[in-house]
Amino acid sequence: MTIMASISQGNQGQNQLGPGHSATPRAQTHRTRSLRVLFIHRDADAIDSCLQELRKGQFAVASDFVLNLPQCVQQLKSQKYDVLLVEFPHPSCKSPEAVLLLNQIAQQIPLILLTPRFGMESQAKLGDQSWFDCVAREHLAHLSTAVRRALNEKKLRDELEDARRALQHSQSLYRALVDNPAYGIYQCDSDGELLGVNQALVNMLGYDSKEELLAANRASVVIPNLRKSVPFTAGSGERQQIEPVEVEWKRKDGTPLKVRLGGRGAFDENGNFARYEIIAVDITEQRTLEDHLRHQADSDSLTGLANHRRLFEVLQAEICRSKRTGREFSLLLLDLDELKKINDQFGHLFGDRALCRLGQILQDCSRSVDTAARHGGDEFALVLPETDWAAATLVARRICDLLEKDTEEPALSVSVGLASFPKDAGTIGTLLYAADKSLYEMKAAQPHASRSRQSA
Asked: Which of 113, 120, 211, 356 is buried most deeply by CB count within 10 Å?
């Protein structure tokens, strides 16, 4: 028999455990967001703590819990969930392979591991993956942020997948769209020289008539010779065709036009080659949208800095480069002091503004090769390629000095931790651990320094 229980939220906000009970969320307000959660966890107190933090984060939660992976499989067959919160390590989920299996079972449902302590060591064992996140028991206040980030990233992944499928669909239709005026069509001879165009291509390039476009192409190439820029397949007859390719043209007004070209040879009634017929699809807007979605997927929505996932990608790349070149790099971890006090005293808008102010200072102190990231909550990171410990210390000092000189209220200060690769660590997890340890040593050594300016 499968042992499964649910956690329901009553009118007084109390939690009740019992087999077969489904959670009923409270009446939503305009600020709440519905959320259905499946816990794979053995500790009812831990589950209750998670639910309390999610409610604080303005989630209207409906939740169930199971005790192991087989029960999880059965539960997912009967109910859809927005996120899975998983005890880690767990008797049935304590290895990277088990977590990967759970991710495959979940089928794109965001996965968050709940670790008993600071989670970097656990996450390091699992490797650099983008399909899960870790939240330590001692940092449950970050759970709502982690859930919201996971849901937003899933939405962006779905949008990117939809865009990819749309592009594949458009590629499969090009033969059937020869007579469609919405698509640019032109013909060229066996040498690739332009013979004629349709009105849709004229409009796409911003000209007033076919004659004007052809004259402009003779005077200064508007549509490049395909024989010189696009691969043709070998062969004859129907097999003579142009491989689909993306190119960039210039409109009449000089603005760039990104097009996808595809076509094949056309033959006369005797089977002799007559010309190439090319279809040009305007993908400028689509590429702009995809670039925007990629940027959103890698960026923190509040500060515009790199997000947690992008930070791990950069750290992995820098470790590989350091091993290849033998040159070290450094990592700064920064913690914005007294953010809760700012939120309580001035309001959350000022708290958000404080995070953005620190983010801007990190960008001001960064080179083009550096990566400034919001690690989560009030924590930030700065990756400094080919920078030793001494040079990184100067960067940290400059950040603190700029905060000291900032006249905007409320006054801000940060605690900073520093670690270098490979001097202080050999993996992403141990590097983050070393920098975090350095940060908390600074906090312990100067317990009142971060509050001095705000008190003044």
From this structure: 113
Which of 378, 401, 406, 424 is labelled catalytic?
Answer: 378
Of the residues 145, 165, 185, the one at which a domain ends = 165
Phi, psi angle pair for 376, to nearest 5°: 140, 135
Of 294, 327, 313, give the one whose Cα is nearest residue 373.
313
216/70 Cα distance (integer angstroms)? 68
State the pLDDT at residue 180. Answer: 60
C-alpha to C-alpha distance for 171 and 244, rounded to whole angstroms: 8
Determine phi and psi for 279, rounding to 5 degrees: -105, 130
Decide if 378 is catalytic.
yes
Task: Say if CB 310 and CB 373 are below 8 A apart.
Answer: yes
Say yes or no: 373 and 438 in one domain: yes
Amino acid at position 349, single letter: L
Q: In this structure, are 281 and 158 located in the same domain?
A: no
Per-residue model confidence as pLDDT tens digits over 139-191: 888 888 889 888 888 888 888 888 778 766 655 654 455 456 667 888 888 78
- Residue 94 has what pLDDT? 67
Tokens, residue 296? 């959103």
315 plus 428 within the same structural domain: yes
**Residue 18 pairs with which residues in a beta bridge?**
6
DSSP 8-state class, residue 384: E
Q: For the segment 7-45, what is each residue's pLDDT rounded down to a tens digit?
A: 433 333 334 344 344 444 444 444 688 999 999 888 888
Number of domains the chain is built from: 3
Nearest to 182 by CA among 170, 195, 172: 170
